[in-house]
Amino acid sequence: MARLYSTLLAGACLCAGALGKVFPRQSGNLPTVTSEGNAFWANGERFYIRGVAYQPGGAADAQDPLLDMSSLRRDIQRFTELGINTIRVYTIDNSKNHDEAMSMLDEAGIYLALDANTPEFSLNRESLDTLHQSYNDVYLQSVFATIDAFAGYNNLLLFFSGNEVINARNNTQAAPYIKAVTRDMKRYISAQADRSIPVGYSSADVAENIESQALYFACGDDQWARSDFFAFNDYSWCSPSSFTQSGWDQKVETYRDYSLPLFLSEFGCIENTRTWEEIESLYSQNMSVAYSGGLAYEYTLEANGYGLVEQSGNGIVPNEDFRRLKAAYAATSNPTGDGGASRQRSNVPACPPRTSEWNVRTENLPEIPAKAENYISNGVSNGPGLNAESSQWRGQPSETEPDLSDGTQESEDVSNGDNSGSSDGSSGGSSGGSDSDSDNDENGAAALGFSTVLLGLAGAAAAFAAM
Ligand SMILES: *[C@@H]1O[C@H](CO)[C@@H](O)[C@H](O)[C@H]1NC(C)=O
Ligand SMILES: *[C@@H]1O[C@H](CO)[C@@H](O)[C@H](O)[C@H]1NC(C)=O
């Protein structure tokens, strides 16, 4: 409980890292989780994500849910009742301290999967020009500050470097910028944190390019630019369905030999009453050979129609959806042993070819903006929080041309030597979840952080296919 936690904090020195930054040592009782081969591991055992997305209020006017202690305390009781081990939070305030929330979650056995972007501090996918402008040092300062704010908690499971930035068939050109952010986060973690932390991207399930995305974020010679996991938001299993009827059996075949841990960063189609039969398949040997679980979308009922608990006066009331999900989790344990995954897997796939559905013509990535390179060596000061002016039009962009013709393929190893294994990671970026508010950008440009209206509505894959 709080007791143990503070003992650990008190007993920890504020140690100067290899490069001089003062960084608190790890706190919390849960074992840290690493990415090795094509799965996650904790204490030498396979780790499966059994979770829910948690962003009360939705993504439109995002509030940090880890600052409201009385609501969080109440919600953690519900998380425990649901039997989950992970929550996903899309937006936090990186100017605030999170010791109390992370300690409470730790005591309840719950990890945090955290998006490193915020609505105002994210890439802008509208065009090559906006991507290039928004990939700047002011943006990366915020992402790195989020890493600083959370790397010290044992129960920080992973960082998302972006969420549904590519959300259609015509914006795959964002991929090199997302991959650059992933790379920069991994390098920052390696240089500034005391442990490795998995970093990867949470993608929209766009039927025409999802497999190219999975390959692209896993490929290439630069180990820093390769993700530590790949995740996608999958709403394709709509009750009543089955492993074969949903087509999830085909997806397992697609990803059976994939190089990275894979999981569902959101799931739970609401076309019909949700009975959550997909839980039984997701945590069976049928899927564990390639998948490491997932996050049910989402905890509080929002305008988009998803939700397990509903606001009632000052309190919350679990609905029938909550009860069915609880029953499904309770009825399904994790597969035993390694579940068919391999800790030793070390294949690196070839990068996907350019096609009419995958508009990425080079393996080059933009170089990190010069000032942000300094941050990797020297650390960053406090994060800007949620009220600062958007980073998208300020800051110094990369010196690489927007078409990436003079970009980089290899990045310098800045590891401090403590965590040079395959699982170092960092990365940040995030976006806003599948809420239905996607027009957060006054300029009409879709901000990276904010996911698509489509997924928030239903039948994402079908909707994309129809575009
Ligand atoms: C993609 O298509 C949509 C809808 O036609 C459009 O609003 C958007 O600007 C396009 N994005 C890019 C990057 O071309
Ligand atoms: C596992 O796969 C088999 C073969 O496709 C299928 O018959 C069975 O229902 C699946 N079980 C689960 C729990 O998905």
Question: Quick gist of this model?
Answer:
This protein has 467 residues and is α/β, with parallel strands linked by helices. The protein is 27% helix and 15% strand. The protein has a single domain, classed as Glycosidases (TIM Barrel, Alpha-Beta Barrel), CATH 3.20.20.80.
Identify the notable features of this structure and list them briefly.
467 residues, alpha/beta, TIM Barrel, disordered N terminus, binds 2-acetamido-2-deoxy-beta-D-glucopyranose, 1,3-beta-glucanosyltransferase activity, GPI-anchor, glycoprotein
Structural class: alpha/beta
Query: Looking across the biggest beta sheet, what order are the strands in?
Result: 6-7-8-9-10-11-12-13
How much helicity do the residues have?
25-40%
CATH architecture: Alpha-Beta Barrel
Tell me the series of helices and strands, N- to C-terminal: HEEEEEEHEHEHHEHEHEHEHHEEEHHHH
Low-confidence stretches: 1-22, 417-467
- Outline the biggest β-sheet: 8 strands, parallel, barrel
What kind of oligomer do you see?
single chain
CATH uppermost class: Alpha Beta
What are the distinct ligands in this entry?
Answer: 2-acetamido-2-deoxy-beta-D-glucopyranose
CATH 4th-level superfamily: Glycosidases
Which fold does the CATH topology refer to?
TIM Barrel
Overall mean pLDDT stands at: 86
Shape: globular
In percent terms, what proportion of residues is strand?
15-25%
Total E-strand runs: 15
**Number of alpha- plus pi-helical segments:** 14
Radius of gyration: 20 Å
How would you describe this structure to a colleague?
It is a lipid-anchor; GPI-anchor. Belongs to the glycosyl hydrolase 72 family. GO terms for molecular function: 1,3-beta-glucanosyltransferase activity. The protein is an alpha/beta fold and 467 residues long. It has a single domain, classed as TIM Barrel, CATH 3.20.20.80. Helices cover 27% and strands 15% of the residues. It contains 14 helices and 15 strands. The chain has an 8-stranded parallel β-barrel with strand order 6-7-8-9-10-11-12-13. It has a 3-stranded antiparallel beta sheet with strand order 3-4-5, with no helix packed on it. Strands 1-2 form a two-stranded antiparallel ribbon. The longest helix is centred in the middle third of the chain and has 18 residues. It is globular, with a radius of gyration of 20 Å. The protein binds 2-acetamido-2-deoxy-beta-D-glucopyranose (2 copies). The site of one 2-acetamido-2-deoxy-beta-D-glucopyranose (NAG) has 5 residues, from loops. The site of one 2-acetamido-2-deoxy-beta-D-glucopyranose has 7 residues, from helix 9.
